[in-house]
Design a protein that fits this description.
The complex is a heterodimer of chains A (282) and B (293). Chain A has 282 residues and is an all-alpha fold. Helix content of chain A is 71%, strand content 0%. In chain A, helix 3 crosses helix 14 and helix 11 packs across helix 15. The longest helix of chain A is centred in the N-terminal third of the chain and has 32 residues. Helix content of chain B is 73%, strand content 2%. Chain B has one domain: MetI-like fold, CATH 1.10.3720.10. Chain B is an all-alpha fold and 293 residues long. The two termini of chain B are 17 Å apart. Classes of the chains: A mainly alpha (282), B mainly alpha (293). At the A-B interface, helix 1, helix 4, helix 5, helix 6 and helix 7 of A face helix 1, helix 3, helix 4, helix 5 and helix 7 of B.
C-alpha cells in the first residue's frame, strides 16, 4: 500500500462485494432451485431461500433422471465425465512430455518439421473442424466410445510447449553429469526430468481436468447413446421446451453436480490452478 | 533456444514423438485437409453424390445475407464480450490488488466461474432470465422492462453476452491480478511522493505497464467469444430468435449438423480457420516483440 486512503478502501470493498455478489448469485439461485419442488419454482417470484427437498431432488437425478426430458441416470453421466476429465489430461501429459523430451534433448532429421507440425495444432480448436473430425471418428468406428470422446482432444500442442519451455530451464550440467555417469537418455528421463517436472505436470493436470470435464460440443456430436452422455450433455438433454415444461429443480440439481468437481479442483488446488493457467497461456 | 548437451540415438526420438504425431495427423491434419476438400464440393441432398465446384461454395457464402449477417453478429458479440469482460475484470483486479482484508475470500469467489462449463453457464443465466419464471425477469418487469429474449433479438444477444462475460471474468481477473502484482511498488511510491493521486497513478503507470497483459487478454477473449461460447449459445438461444445470436461457429454447426450442408459448412470452417490463424499470428508477433523488452 502506497498511502492511506480510507475512502478509496471503502470504495474498493464496495466494488469487490458487488462483484462477488453478481458472480455468486447465479450459483446461489441454482442451489436454491435444486432444493425446491417444481411447484415452488414455478411461483413468481421463486423463493430465495433453500427448501426441504435437497435429498429428494439429488436422489432422483442421480438414479432416475428427469421425467419430461432425458431419463438417463446422472450417476452414470458423472462417471463418463470423470473418465473424460482424467483421460484428457493424462493422455495429453504422457504423449506431450515424451515428445517434448525428444524435441529438446535430441538432434535428428525432421526435428524442426515435427516441431512445426505440432505447433500448428495450437491454432485450430476442435470447434473449427467439427464436421470432418466427426467423419474421421465415424469412419474409425469410434462413435459412442471413450476413445472417440477423448482422443481428438488429446491432439493439442499446449502441453508440449509448456514442457518444452520447462525443459529449456533444466541446467545442462544435469544432462552432462548423467551422461558422464553412463546414463542413457531414458534413464535420464525417468530419474531426472520426470521428478523435476512434477510441478508442471500438476499445474497442467488441473487445467486439463477442468477442460475435459467441461467439454460440450464434441461429446454433443459423437454421443447419441444415453449411456455415453457426460453430465454437461445430460443437462442439455433435460431441457425440452418452454419454461413450464422443464423440471428446473432437477435440471438445477444436475447443474450443481456438474459444477462441483471442477469447482473443488479449482478451490482445493488454487495454487496449481493459477500457476497452470498463467503458464499454459504464456 | 537450443540445448548444448544432447543425447544421440538413431531411433529413440522418433519413437518418442510418434504418439503425438499420430494423433495430430489422424485427428488434425486429416480432418483439416478434408474440410478444405469438402469446401470445394457440392453434395446432393442425400449425400450420395458430390461434384467438384471450385470456389462456388465460397462465392455462395459471400452472397448469402444470412452468412454476412452472422459475420456482423459475431463481430458485435465478440467485441462486447471482450470489451466488457476486460473492463470489468480490470476494475475488480485493481480493487482486489488494493485491499488486504478479505482478499482471499474475494479471490475465491471470483475465480469460481472458471470451473463452470460454458453450457452450464448458459443454463444458469437462461434460468435467471427465463421469460415467465426467471427471478431477474421478475425484477425487470417490476421496473417496467418487458423482458422476453425468446422473441426479442437484442435481449437474446444481451443474455448470451452476460453469460459469456460471467464465465470468462475469472480468467481475465487472474491475469490482471498477476500483472498488477508484478508492477514494481517503487514506481508507484515514487509517483505518490511526487504528488500523483491514485487515479493519476492508475492511468499513467498501471495502465501502460499492463498493456501487454491487456493485449494478450484481448486476443484470448476474442478467440473465446468466437469458439468457446458455443455451449452458452446452444443451451440458451440456439442462434435465435431469427438468427440474432447466430455467431459463425454456431452457423458451422447448424449448417453442417442440422441442415447437413457439408460443402457450405466446410467452406465456413475453412474461413474460420483462416481467421484463427490470422489471430494467432497477431498474438505471436506481439509475444516476439515482448520478449525483446
Amino acid at each position: 500500500m502506497v498511502e492511506k486512503r480510507p475512502l478509496l478502501d471503502f470504495v474498493s470493498h464496495g466494488v469487490l462485494i458487488l462483484g462477488a455478489i453478481v458472480v455468486a448469485f447465479p450459483i446461489y439461485i441454482t442451489f436454491v432451485a435444486s432444493t425446491r419442488t417444481f411447484e415452488e419454482i414455478m411461483q413468481v417470484p421463486m423463493p430465495l431461500l433453500p427448501g426441504q427437498h435437497f435429498l429428494e431432488n439429488y436422489a432422483q437425478v442421480l438414479f432416475a433422471g428427469t421425467t419430461t426430458g432425458s431419463r438417463a441416470a446422472v450417476w452414470a453421466m458423472l462417471m463418463n465425465s470423470t473418465i473424460m476429465a482424467l483421460a484428457v489430461p493424462l493422455g495429453k501429459i504422457s504423449i506431450s512430455i515424451i515428445s517434448s523430451f525428444a524435441l529438446v534433448y535430441f538432434r535428428f532429421p525432421l526435428r524442426n518439421f515435427f516441431f512445426w507440425m505440432i505447433f500448428v495444432t495450437l491454432m485450430l480448436p476442435v470447434e473449427v473442424r467439427i464436421i470432418p473430425t466427426f467423419k474421421v471418428i465415424a469412419d474409425l468406428g469410434l462413435l459412442n466410445t471413450y476413445a472417440g470422446l477423448t482422443l481428438p482432444l488429446i491432439a493439442s500442442a499446449t502441453a508440449t510447449f509448456l514442457f518444452r519451455q520447462f525443459f529449456m530451464t533444466i541446467p545442462d550440467e544435469l544432462a552432462e553429469a548423467a551422461r558422464m555417469d553412463g546414463a542413457g537418455p531414458m534413464r535420464f528421463f525417468w530419474d531426472v526430468v520426470l521428478p523435476l517436472s512434477k510441478t508442471t505436470m500438476a499445474a497442467l493436470f488441473v487445467i486439463q481436468f477442468i477442460y475435459g470435464w467441461n467439454q460440450y460440443l464434441w461429446p454433443l456430436l459423437i454421443t447419441s447413446d444415453e449411456s455415453m452422455y457426460t453430465t454437461v450433455i445430460g443437462i442439455k438433454r433435460m431441457i425440452v421446451g418452454g419454461d413450464a415444461a422443464n423440471e428446473w429443480n432437477l435440471i438445477m440439481a444436475t447443474a450443481m453436480l456438474a459444477m462441483l468437481p471442477p469447482a473443488l479442483v479449482v478451490l482445493l488446488m488454487q495454487k496449481w490452478f493459477v500457476k497452470g493457467l498463467v503458464e499454459t497461456e504464456k | 533456444m537450443e540445448k548444448r548437451v544432447v543425447f544421440r540415438s538413431a531411433w529413440l526420438p522418433y519413437v518418442l514423438v510418434a504418439p503425438q504425431l499420430a494423433i495430430t495427423i489422424v485427428f488434425f491434419f486429416w480432418p483439416a485437409a478434408q474440410a478444405v476438400w469438402y469446401s470445394f464440393q457440392l453434395q446432393d441432398a442425400f449425400g450420395l453424390q458430390s461434384e467438384f465446384v471450385g470456389l462456388e461454395n465460397f462465392k455462395f457464402l459471400f452472397r448469402d445475407p444470412h452468412y454476412l449477417q452472422s459475420f456482423k453478429t459475431t463481430a458485435i458479440f465478440s467485441v462486447a464480450v471482450a470489451g466488457s469482460g476486460i473492463a470489468l475484470s480490470l476494475l475488480l483486479a485493481t480493487m482486489a490488488d488494493r485491499v488486504i482484508r478479505g482478499a482471499l475470500v474475494y479471490k475465491t469467489i471470483l475465480i469460481w466461474p472458471y470451473a463452470v462449463a460454458a453450457a452450464v453457464a448458459g443454463v444458469l443465466w437462461a434460468f435467471l432470465f427465463a421469460p415467465s419464471i426467471g427471478i431477474v425477469t421478475f425484477v425487470l418487469k417490476a421496473m417496467g422492462v418487458d423482458w422476453n429474449w425468446i422473441i426479442n433479438g437484442n435481449q437474446a444477444m444481451l443474455l448470451v453476452i452476460i453469460a459469456s462475460v460471467w464465465k470468462q471474468i475469472s480468467y481475465n481477473f487472474l491475469f490482471f491480478l498477476a500483472g498488477l502484482q508484478s508492477i514494481p511498488k517503487s514506481l508507484l511510491e515514487a509517483a505518490a511522493i511526487d504528488g500523483a493521486g491514485p487515479s493519476r497513478r492508475f492511468w499513467t503507470i498501471v495502465v501502460p505497464l499492463l498493456s501487454p497483459t491487456t493485449f494478450f487478454l484481448l486476443v484470448v477473449n476474442i478467440v473465446y467469444a468466437f469458439f468457446d461460447t458455443f455451449g452458452v449459445i446452444d443451451t440458451t438461444t440456439q442462434g435465435g430468435p431469427a438468427q440474432a445470436t447466430q455467431i459463425l461457429v454456431y452457423k458451422v454447426y447448424h449448417d453442417g449438423v442440422k441442415s447437413a450442408d457439408i460443402g457450405g459448412s466446410s467452406a465456413q470452417s475453412v474461413i474460420l480457420m483462416i481467421i484463427v490463424i490470422a489471430l494467432t499470428a497477431v498474438q505471436f508477433r506481439f509475444i516476439e516483440r515482448k520478449v525483446q523488452y
